[in-house]
Write a structure and sequence with these properties.
five-stranded antiparallel sheet; five-stranded mixed sheet; about 25% strand; elongated
Length: about 350
Amino acid sequence: ETADFPVEWAVLEAQAGDPERLLAVPADTNPLAGSADVEILANEPAGPLSLRCRFGLWLDAARFDPTRRTGALAPDAIARALKTRAALESGDSAASPLAWEVDVDPEYEDWTREVLIPAHAALAPPASREEPAAPSPAIPFRRRWTTFGNPYALAASILLMITLGLAGGLLWQTGKIADLSAGRQRTEDELRRERERHAGELRQTEEAHRREIAERDRQAAQREQEDRSRIADLEKRLDSAGHVRPLVNAPFISLSPKDPERGGEPESYALPRDATYLFLLLGVTDLRSFPEYRLEILKKDTGKPVWSSRGLHKTGLLEISVALPPDLLPPGDYRLRLYGLKEGRAELAGEYEVRVGDATP
């Protein structure tokens, strides 16, 4: 019955108490998904597909031909579709701002008007027909005895009746046009109010996102200020010591990125007890270019952060170095994550593991 439209019908559930009544919604491959639609991704069963929950219908099971069945939806997809239907009926839709924006997309509106609404109408029960308008009251005429005997009087009478009939039809047509114009105006007003409401919700969401980004930037600036304060304190300590002495026999650890396929235990290093710094040399095999890097050191068993800093740069083509005080890394297993920072985003550039053993004499 809907073969002329590029849609299928997805059966969601049977009616409680009447298993022969099935709830079905139109499904199509148009990628535009509005606030009342559920997207089935390409990697999901029957995907890619868009379930148009606003146009669901309760239909008799006999109307479905089992030989035309094309597949099955995942239970999670059916649950999402039923949840969307329930939200539509209660008026508590929690769609994303992007979905609301799609609702007013001209291309989406064309698809709804040209495909979904006609497909829905093709299966929907027929609407009750309007009763014909009551005929206009008859206008009495004073009839003379010569009317039917006089051909001119007869022609005038017929012409008068035709004129009255045309006038009545014209008045009826004018009234229908006025009703259609009023209905169109109401629809346009409702659509305008709906667009204004969607625009207001979108502005509120964007304002919330701006506040969240500003708060993250403030926290990042605060952490950066704290790191600078610690560096300044260390520099002050070095200056107060008189002069910097050369470091001899400094422990040096060179790490390569962890291979997730091989796994295995990390290499173990024991630090001398009199070591003042531990030098780490991190090999960088990720060839992407980043203006700066951030290094995070975590306990491997608990994931608890030990130390983190940004502002690192390559000392060579494929190396990043950092010197750490030994008391920062007591004996134990550690995981190091190196992130490349670019345009406000952090992307993993390397992951390393090291085991620090007990200090040697």
